[in-house]
Amino acid sequence: MSEGKKTKFVTAGRDKKWTNGVVNPPVQRASTIVFDTVAEKNQAMINRTNKTLFYGRRGTNTHFAFQDAMVEIEGGAGCALYPCGTAAISNAILSFIETGDHILMVDTCYEPTRDFCDTIMKKMGVETTYFDPMIGEGIRDLIQPNTKVLFLESPGSITMEVMDVPTLASIAHEKDIIVMLDNTWGAGVNFSPFEHGVDISIQAATKYIVGHSDVMLGTAVASEKYWDQLREQSYLMGQCVSPDDAYLGLRGIRTLDVRLRQHAENSLKVAQWLANRPEVDHVRHPALESCPGHEFFKRDFTGGNGLFSFVLKSSYPKATTALLDGMKHFSMGYSWGGYESLILANEPKSFNSLRTVANPNFEGTLVRLHIGLEDVEDLISDLEAGFERYNALVLEKEASL
């Protein structure tokens, strides 16, 4: 009988060969692995790519346990580890492209992903074409004979567009194009990448996997077809992580499902409250119809989390600053996925440097929230007070006209 998903979060990566009889796999720190005989050393060399102690950069039992857990949760054939999510993205791409290749990159990707394509990839002679996240079947028109990678991120960074991943993946596979997905929002819990045609699922495990805002960590889980190449190319580029960080990622998995469900419950309540605020034009929460691609969220995702955005009816930076500066429970900070609530604002003009084909068609300020595990009533009260500060400055401006 197969295990339920909730059970997997408790049992994943806890094979006795990693735990040695204790509940949690111990933190095993090592650079040099020593052998008593030539035969032992040679055997380790033969099996060095298959979770065998050989050299610290190949991993220790702590790393192997975390890698096993990620594969049990997301699927795929193997998991490569990186010191952060950006390293996971860049090295996954680097593992499969060469000079003269072409990448199709969703226009709503994470900003460092775009920077990587526009600098490192360009310098290497790799062309990038950005496409609208809602392109669907239209992706066929952008495929070139040298297209090697189709890179997706769903929902999109900041503006939260949910993509039709199965359709895009199916079209890409007709041309033997590798489909990569930044699956950080889905976290391996709410979106099953390999059931939807993805070849390599990438996460900033810094976010929900770790869940406590105290570790930088990246993962890339690959299908059997691409696992060997991803593993060996990443190894050649020197990618490895601290066993302590791998341990904290593994510990985070134990409560991942429970945390995400609470984040999702809290965020939906806040999103629904915001949708009724007179200052708000619309809310971009995948679970709400006002979010682009909501129909794909309903079809492909099993739940949400704490991250979403809302758009104000106008852009008045001074008032937005007043809203943000007086927060009690929301802090301003980059990243997300921890237990705490965060808030950041983006003026419409800021998207001019972030987007080339999918500029959002709104004129108001976009505010991105990460809803943490605090009492929802406290968060709503905090936002309500923020709107009072915001409105006071808006009225002051109107009175001066």
From TrEMBL:
Keywords: Lyase, Pyridoxal phosphate. Pathway: Amino-acid biosynthesis; L-methionine biosynthesis via de novo pathway; L-homocysteine from L-cystathionine: step 1/1. It comes from the Bacteria. Pfam families: Cys_Met_Meta_PP. Its cofactor is pyridoxal 5'-phosphate. It catalyses: L,L-cystathionine + H2O = L-homocysteine + pyruvate + NH4(+); an S-substituted L-cysteine + H2O = a thiol + pyruvate + NH4(+). Coiled coil: none annotated. CDD domains: CGS_like. InterPro entries: Cys/Met-Metab_PyrdxlP-dep_enz, Cys_b_lyase_bac, Cys_met_metab_PP, PyrdxlP-dep_Trfase, PyrdxlP-dep_Trfase_major, PyrdxlP-dep_Trfase_small. Belongs to the trans-sulfuration enzymes family. This is Cystathionine beta-lyase. It comes from Vibrio hyugaensis.
